[in-house]
Every structure is written in structure tokens, then in C-alpha cells.
Design goal:
The structure is a single chain. The chain has 407 residues and is α/β, with parallel strands linked by helices. The chain has helices at residues 15-29, 58-71, 79-92, 109-118, 170-182, 194-200, 254-263, 294-303, 318-325, 338-341, 355-368, 371-384, 387-404, and strands at 2-6, 9-10, 33-38, 40-41, 52-54, 96-99, 122-127, 187-191, 209-212, 240-248, 268-275, 285-289, 306-309, 330-333, 347-350. It folds into two domains: 2-216 and 387-404, 3-Layer(aba) Sandwich (Rossmann fold), CATH 3.40.50; 230-384, Rossmann fold (3-Layer(aba) Sandwich). The strands form three sheets. It has a seven-stranded parallel beta sheet with strand order 5-3-1-6-7-8-9, with helices on both faces. Helix 5 links the parallel strand 7 and strand 8 (187-191). Helix 7 (254-263) crosses helix 11 and helix 9 (318-325) packs across helix 12 (371-384). The longest helix has 18 residues, at 387-404.
Length: 407
């Protein structure tokens, strides 16, 4: 079986690039021919893999971004680089093509889906966010939108996600996606949470074959350790909280983090990730920037009393999963995938958008203490985020998709 994955990135520096890399190696370990097409490598040595290819370039991506912002249409440009990609796919003649995150100014969806339909290739959409079934946005919980179920239009998020300066093209984009998908009779969907699968079943993808497979962790890395990172040893005598995001903004809940710091001054918050904020006025927020070393991250997760994830919307929530794997309770909002990752034995859920309730839940978890939650948290992580088990679920889903469609 020939399996092709297409994603914006390949490698360990981000979650989707890491997933693609690990699946690539897993498929090869099963004796399958595995190929990856990406727009960039995330790690040294990736270019040495003869089955990993780049299909775009920086000039093409910048031009695509410019045209997309003018027209409001994401995924309608990059024709030349897409045609080159399709020529390579035609040489490989894959049995399965797995599409990951591609709304990054790098591909022409019309050309891609026409090719997949014409060649009758089993196609799997992996939903790391909601873009594949909306007219424009990657998430919609924050604006309370349900238009994606039917028609889109009058988009409340045109200046967010794939920004448009002038035109609301969400209705056209949703209709085009519906047309493109209808021509692929071998369409399958993997959602990364049960919450996401429920919403997919209300969308233009409801007629596809849909399943849920959680993202996974390297559980040999993300587990409890008593090693304390040097950078925070001087704070270890105080109650500690950890908050992690690749980039901190309002959607990720930076304002909530600041308010927790104000209302619970005895709590020192370790903030990891890029941010525009300056925290000199908040003496109990220690901003450390982005940390890519996973062994180091496991130390941070392990040495704190509580993990804060006040994100407004997560299709999965990998930092939450990593925290649980290290035995640390999580406080989040009662929305999206958080509802299936967290219960009262693994942390607490606050009423969505209710900052006061969030702060009270933080206090409750602190009172009970980390030990109250650690056994349940680590058990849940081992049962749900095991890489070998979840990658095998991918593999079996792919095999059944090929068998189901006469492959």
C-alpha cells in the first residue's frame, strides 16, 4: 500500500509536523510505502529522507497570502506548485492520500480535489481544526457561529484566521468545498476529538466515513519526573502553576492568566510560549518564551501544582494531554474537547467565558492538591494518548478505507 501525507510542516517543532513524521515512520515499520509532502522541514536531517518532499516555496506562499487577503479566498492560488505536486503524486500512484493542515497559502484545493477525484484515490481529511468544513474560519466557538452547518456568509471572523481585507467569501468557499467533496466518493475523516466528530456530523462532511482518533504523546518523555528545571528552582518553595502555548493571545486566554495572577498573588505562574505582553508589573508571572525541548517540558509539567489552560477553543488540546501524562491537574473552560479530557478527578472545568468561575476552580484545585489528581490523570493519559495504539488505529482505519472502497 502506498500512503501519502500532505501537511504544511514535517518534523518535531510543531504538533502536526510531529504527528506526520511519526506516522510516516510507523507506516514504514508496517512494511508500507510511505511518502510525505510538506512546505517546510521542522528539524535538521529531514531532507535526508528520500520519501519526504517539499512542494512549495516562500515566494509562492507570500503571493498566495497577498491574493488571499485581497480576495478573501484561501486555497485558490498556488496553481503552479500544486500542479508540480500532482505530477509527483501521479508518478507515485498512491492508494491513500492523507490531508492535514493546508490552509497556509500553499495549495490550490480545486486542482488537488479534482486530481483525487479523477484518480479515484482514497482520501482522508485529518481535522486538526475546523477549516475543512467551514467557509472561512478555523474555529467558531468564540463567536458562537453555526452558519457553517448550512451556508456560511455574513462571516464574523473574516479579519481573523485566514484574514480578508475586503470581501466576505465564506459562502462561496463553503459551497465550493461541498462541490469538491461530493466528487470524491472515497472521502474519509479523522477527527482528533469526539466533540469535533459530533460537529463534523452536522457539517458538509456528514456523508463521509468519520472516526475519532486522539493525538498521541511520547509517554516515555511525558511522564512524572522529580527533576526541577534550573530556571525555576528559586520559585519551588511557592505554589506553582504552568501555562503553555506556542503564541499567547486572547484566544489562548492570556487575559485570564493575568487575572489569575492578580487574584491569587501567592501563586507563581510559569508562562511558556511567545507573547507580545510584558509582565514586569506582574511579579508572579515568569515568562520563559518558547521551549522546544520535550524532556525539558516534561520537567515543567511535573514540578508545578496545577496547569492552566484558559483557551477559548481547542479541537484537542495537546498541552492539556501532556500535563495529564505528567500527573498534573488541569483547569480549563467547559467547552470543545476539554469536556472529554478533564473531569473532577483530573482537574476542573469552569463555566465557559466566566473568568470569576475559572479563578474559583483554580483555588479549588490548589486546595485539594496535586496528589489528589495525579493517579487518575496519568492513568487517563496512558489509556488514551499511547502513540503505538493510536497510530495503529490510524493504520487500521486506512486499511479499512481502502478495503471499503475496493482498493
Amino acid at each position: 500500500m502506498k500512503i501519502v501525507q500532505i501537511n504544511t510542516t514535517y518534523g518535531m517543532a510543531d504538533s502536526t509536523g510531529r504527528n506526520v513524521r511519526e506516522l510516516h515512520h510507523y507506516f514504514q515499520s508496517k512494511g508500507e510505502e510511505s511518502f510525505v509532502f510538506a512546505t517546510q522541514y521542522n528539524e535538521d536531517g529531514s531532507s535526508n529522507d528520500k520519501n519526504v518532499f517539499l512542494f512549495s516555496n516562500l515566494f509562492d506562499q507570500k503571493l498566495h497570502a497577498f491574493l488571499s487577503r485581497l480576495s478573501g479566498l484561501q486555497g485558490y492560488y498556488s496553481k503552479s506548485s500544486t500542479k508540480k505536486l500532482l505530477l509527483d503524486l501521479d508518478k507515485i500512484l498512491p492508494d491513500v492520500v492523507i490531508l492535514n493542515v493546508l490552509h497556509s497559502n500553499c495549495i490550490n484545493f480545486k486542482e488537488l480535489f479534482y486530481f483525487l477525484s479523477k484518480k479515484q484515490i482514497v482520501t482522508i481529511l485529518v481535522l486538526h481544526d475546523c477549516f475543512f468544513y467551514t467557509g472561512h474560519c478555523c474555529h467558531y466557538i468564540d463567536v458562537g457561529c453555526t452558519r457553517w452547518m448550512h451556508y456560511c456568509g455574513n462571516c464574523r471572523s473574516m479579519n481573523k484566521w485566514n484574514k480578508s481585507y475586503f470581501f466576505d467569501t465564506s459562502q462561496k468557499s463553503l459551497q465550493d468545498k461541498k462541490t469538491w467533496y461530493s466528487n470524491i466518493h472515497k472521502l474519509n475523516v479523522i477527527a482528533v476529538s469526539k466533540w469535533l466528530e459530533l460537529d463534523v456530523n452536522k457539517s458538509i462532511l456528514k456523508n463521509a466515513h468519520i472516526t475519532t482518533i486522539y493525538n498521541w504523546l511520547e509517554l516515555e518523555t511525558f511522564k512524572y519526573t522529580n527533576l526541577v528545571p534550573e530556571r525555576i528552582k528559586k520559585y519551588k518553595h511557592r505554589p506553582l502553576a504552568l501555562a503553555v502555548a506556542s503564541f499567547w493571545d486572547q484566544d489562548k486566554g492570556i487575559d485570564d492568566i493575568i487575572e489569575v495572577a492578580k487574584q491569587i498573588p501567592e501563586l507563581t505562574i510559569i508562562l511558556i510560549g511567545r507573547t507580545k505582553e510584558q509582565f514586569e508589573q506582574h511579579k508572579n508571572i515568569i515568562s520563559l518564551g518558547l521551549i522546544k525541548d520535550m524532556d525539558e517540558m516534561a520537567k515543567y509539567y511535573s514540578c508545578v501544582d496545577i496547569f492552566l489552560n484558559p483557551s477559548k477553543q481547542e479541537t484537542f488540546g495537546k498541552t492539556t494531554a501532556e500535563s495529564l501524562a505528567c500527573g498534573t491537574p488541569v483547569v480549563a473552560y467547559d467547552s470543545t474537547a476539554f469536556k472529554e479530557l478533564i473531569d473532577s478527578s483530573r482537574g476542573a472545568l469552569a463555566e465557559y467565558g466566566n473568568r470569576r468561575d475559572y479563578i474559583e476552580k483554580v483555588k479549588d484545585v490548589m486546595r485539594k492538591g496535586r496528589k489528589y489528581y495525579s493517579i487518575s490523570a496519568t492513568r487517563f493519559a496512558k489509556e488514551n494518548f499511547n502513540g503505538k495504539i493510536n497510530m495503529e488505529l490510524y493504520y487500521q482505519f486506512i486499511k479499512s478505507a481502502v478495503d471499503r472502497n475496493g482498493g
